Amino acid sequence: MIKIYWDQGFKRSYKRKIKNNSEYKAKFWESLELFSEEPFNPQLRTHKLSGKLKGLWVFSCLYDCRVIFKFIRKNEVLLIDIGSHDEVY
Predict the structure, then answer these.
(1) Res 88: pLDDT
(2) Into how many domains does the chain fold?
(3) I need a labelling partner for 45 at 20 to 30 A (CA). Which of 7, 53, 58, 88 fits?
(4) What is the pLDDT of residue 57?
């Protein structure tokens, strides 16, 4: 199981974009639970980023909701940002 930490920027993004939207909120928590059990589950479409975000990873919650994160250690990740494709890239 993966241990998950939230950085301050992620907390702000979550409050602004997810917290008050019940559909996004439910899907986020469902995806986060799946991610903590199996980060490379095909449903999440987890992949490495390149360019200015090289070294970071992303998984999808909904069609247009992405979570950017980085691996701190083998079983620990730091969530960095959440939002639509255009907002996080």
Answers:
(1) 79
(2) 1
(3) 7
(4) 97
